[in-house]
Every structure is written in C-alpha cells, then in structure tokens.
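seq:
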Amino acid sequence: MMRSENTIQVSNTTEDFPSNIDELRSRYDACVEFFGHLDDRTVKAKNDLVKAHEKLAEHALK
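struct:
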C-alpha cells in the first residue's frame, strides 16, 4: 500500500514539472528583460530552471 502512495506522489510531481519549468522560464525571462543583464536574481532564476530540467530528465529516465 505504501508503495502505491509513493508512486502516485511521484507521478503527480512529474506532471507538475512542465508547469514548474514554464514558470521558472518566465521568471528568468522577466529578470533578463527587466535588468537587461545578469544579476543575482537572474542567475538564481537560471539555476532554478537548469535544476528543474535536470529533475525532469532524471524522472523521464526512470
């Protein structure tokens, strides 16, 4: 029973990745557009976007 709950949780999390990536990408784009250059917030937004892509790739391989 516990295994089923974990599977459901993972599948729900995986479904959320595309929307999370879209949100991170729009935040990154907004930072770049607003500041016109890389600052701490822009770099953090880019790093968050890269991490989200890595997580999505890991789950796709499982």
